[in-house]
Amino acid sequence: MAKATTKAPSAKEVLVEKYIADLKEKVGEARPDIALLDAVVRACGPAIYKADSATVAASDKDELARVRTNFIGKRLGVTDEAKADAAIKAAVEKYGRSVRAKHRPVLYYLIAKELKKAAALKNT
User: Fold this and answer.
1) What is the pLDDT of residues 59-80, one digit of tens each?
2) Neighbours of 67 (CB within 10 A)
3) Structure pTM?
4) I want to staple 23 with a disulfide (CB 3.0 to 4.6 A). Which of 32, 37, 59, 120 is the partner?
């Protein structure tokens, strides 16, 4: 009789479970778009594994400017700063201002949905 072996989840799988929990518990999304979340995690690359880049400090203006330039501008192709800033603000509000450490992929997920740019990420 063969023994069933269960492999331990990878670091990425553990993190994705955290992100799904945040989307359900903190954002209130009963059924998160897993394909979009997966695309956002891929877009973040190795940043999700480093403590200093895994989260976004919504109170740091420089960091939000980087999110606007690097993610919204380069990844999503949105160059209208007012539109980008409005999407960041909406995503931060939806995530909850009281949540100090906002997981980068969750915030990016919310921004992509706010800008209706999910398809831009899913096709990468």
Assistant:
1) 999 999 999 999 999 999 999 9
2) 22
3) 0.91
4) 32
* Helical residues (DSSP H) of the chain, grouped into ranges: 11-22, 34-44, 61-66, 81-95, 104-114, 118-122
Contact 79, 73 (CB under 8 A): yes
- Determine contact, residues 122/36, Cβ cutoff 8 Å: yes
Q: If 0-12 CB within 10 Å is exposed, 13-18 middle and 19+ buried, where does residue 18 land?
A: middle
Checking if the pLDDT of 86 tops 90, the result is: yes
Q: What are the beta bridge partners of residue 103?
A: 55
Q: Could you say which DSSP state residue 52 is in?
A: T
Name residue 59's amino acid. S
Residue type, 51: A
Which tokens hold the place of 30?
Answer: 């009963």
How many other CB atoms are there within 10 angstroms of residue 62's CB atom? 8
Mean pLDDT of the chain: 92
